[in-house]
Design brief:
GFA family protein, zinc, eight-stranded mixed β-sheet, 41% strand, single chain, 3 helices, metal-binding, alpha+beta, lyase, globular, three-stranded antiparallel β-sheet, Mss4-like_sf
Length: 140
Amino acid sequence: MKDGMNARGSCLCGAVKVAVAVNKQNVGACHCDMCRTWGGGPLLALESVSDVEIEGEDNITVYASSEWAERGFCRRCGTHLFYRLKTGNHYAIPVGLVDGGEAWHFDSQIFIDQKPEYYRFANETHDMTGQEVFDAYQGS
């Protein structure tokens, strides 16, 4: 597994293109109610990204899904583009958006206390409850 790479992708219709610097090739799953409602299942995302560049921003709709975060999607085709915190520069980019066959490493799950019983992943991961996630971000 290599770290420090660039990843690129686009929405289904090609109206929005995304480029990110990937600091670690790790993928995390979020099982919160909002992510599962948004995508029909857990959000599998790259969390260790920086230098997010978006082309076609006029085709993006941003929805404020909570007091602290918002979600972006293509207004033409509906592709999920990002989850980001309203303060700071934290983005979660859906791994399927930029997946070109890289050797991603699935290593974490958050809001594990909201994960429904009807699915589970076999990987050993670092798991955090919703409260542990909030506590971690308040401490940073």
